[in-house]
Amino acid sequence: xxxxxxxxxxxxxxxxxxxxxxxxxxxxxxxxxxxxxxxxxxxxxxxxxxxxxxxxxxxxxxxxxxxxxxxxxxxxxxxxxxxxxxxxxxxxxxxxxxxxxxxxxxxxxxxxxxxxxxxxxxxxxxxxxxxxxxxxxxxxxxxxxxxxxxxxxxxxxxxxxxxxxxxxxxxxxxxxxxxxxxxxxxxxxxxxxxxxxxxxxxxxxxxxxxxxxxxxxxxxxxxxxxxxx
Length: 229
Known about the structure:
Blueprint: H1 6-24, H2 35-42, H3 46-50, H4 56-69, H5 77-82, H6 89-109, H7 114-126, H8 133-160, E1 163-165, H9 171-190, E2 197-199, E3 208-210, H10 211-223, E4 224-226
Helix pairs in contact: 1-2, 4-7, 4-8, 6-7, 6-9, 6-10, 8-9, 9-10
């Protein structure tokens, strides 16, 4: 059998630690993932690990950074799929927000959902990003990547429905505001709080609106305007 390289060993240990972290959730950060436990589960010795990391703290720092950067799908994928059939911007808002609420709520209802667990675990770690410089850098990179992709998504939606941002606001400003709202409601979901849902009494179809959807609808009305043709 070929001998593992140091990078192969590092990858095996980190992948196993990430799996354990996703299974257990973010309640205690990464500190509850003990290096000795990970080594036993993959059949490696302490010496193999300490040739890669100086100590447990060094291992935890890299594990936290890996978790923050871990994605199982592009950040906009779920919203794109959820809004494919929408024929108005308001319906895009309703469907996208309902999808986000379902996405973050799965954390409690479906223990096997890797994507929801990864998102909320990364979010929990990002709230403590100031503790370690490398974690702060990873958090900033994840946020920047998400904002870039959502800015492109929102731009396409505005173009599709002949809308634009009200000066001096930009689509990126809107993406930043949306990120704050989405992450705030995600924290509520992680706490186990039920998301309020309302029936639109003025809608002939009596469609359901999440509280997030109503919030975003008002944000859109204040930050955007129709383009005159």
